[in-house]
Specification:
This protein is α+β, with helices and mostly antiparallel strands and about 240 residues long. Helix content is about 40%, strand content about 25%. It has ten helices and ten strands. Strands 1, 2, 3, 4 and 5 form a five-stranded mixed β-sheet that branches. This is Tic22 family protein.
Length: about 240
């Protein structure tokens, strides 16, 4: 994995103004098309629970509300969920399995549901370890914070400058957002950085709002090490 990343010495490619916008300011000038959003998300695998016919397992919902299905960031978490379900409800648990899909496909399905009168929504299920890491970072500034609103994405700033740390991939400068804090730290090595965190759902919302902007085209989502291993296993099977 380290051979894939070459950490750029350019810290000022993206300044604090853009990041401040991303974290909750005026997003009206920043967005991607639906096709570009799918392109950004499709490299990240997520893991759903479905029966043999491919119908997802849904959570019970109140009358008139959309059904909710989980899209686990971690394959291990999805497998553990199925094993627990087999113990608590063997009839149901033995009829379902873990089904990998791309995050881009989940986004498309959610968009189709949004335009329908009723339907199925997928909710991303983060790993508890990364939620804990995210809360630890944020509680340093806000000790009263109790919950993290979604799936954590970790990114780095230069310790001495305020710009985002970038990577160079095939000659292009990209801004990486990691699903694991430790994975980010592993990649930067001895480089002094400040690690910050935002919710995946907030980044997707920023993708959607306003007009096209080059910053979001240069965002790179870096799957967890577990997910990268899963992707490598798929390549070996082909």
């Amino acid at each position: 994995m380290k051979s894939f990343f070459r950490w750029s010495a350019t810290l000022g490619l993206v300044g604090s103004t853009l990041l401040g916008t991303l974290l909750g300011g005026n997003l009206s000038a920043l967005a991607l098309s639906p096709e570009e959003i799918v392109e950004q998300l499709k490299a990240v695998p997520v893991f759903t629970i479905a029966d043999e016919e491919g119908s997802p397992l849904v959570a019970s919902s109140s009358e008139g509300s959309d059904a909710i299905a989980g899209a686990f960031i971690s394959q291990r978490d999805a497998i553990a969920f199925v094993e627990k379900l087999k113990q608590e409800n063997p009839e149901l648990g033995n009829r379902v399995q873990v089904v990998p899909v791309s995050m881009g496909e989940i986004y498309q399905l959610n968009q189709e549901t949004t335009s329908a009168t009723d339907g199925l929504n997928f909710a991303y299920v983060p790993t508890q370890q990364e939620v804990t890491q995210a809360l630890t970072l944020l509680q340093a500034q806000n000790p009263d914070l109790e919950n993290f609103p979604g799936v954590p994405l970790f990114f780095a700033r230069g310790a001495e400058q305020d710009g985002l740390l970038t990577i160079q991939v095939e000659g292009k400068q990209l801004v990486p957002f990691f699903f694991e804090r430790e994975h980010l730290l592993q990649q930067v090595g001895d480089t002094q950085v400040k690690v910050e965190v935002i919710p995946l759902e907030g980044l997707i919302k920023a993708f959607e709002e306003g007009q096209n902007d080059e910053f979001f085209k240069n965002v790179m989502l870096v799957p967890s090490r577990e997910s990268l291993q899963f992707l490598r296993s798929l390549n070996q099977e082909q």
